[in-house]
Amino acid sequence: MELFLNSSSPYARMVRIMVLEKGLAEAVTLRWCDPWSDDPALLEANPAARIPALIADDGTALGESLLIAFYLEGLGHGQPLIPASRLSEVLHLAGLGQGLMDAAFNTVIARKHQGSEADASVLGQRRKRAITRLLDQLELEPELDVPQATTALTLADISVAVALDYLAFRLPEVSWAKDRPRLEAWHRRITSTENVKTTAFQ
Question: Is the whole model's pTM more than 0.85, yes or no?
Answer without folding.
Answer: yes
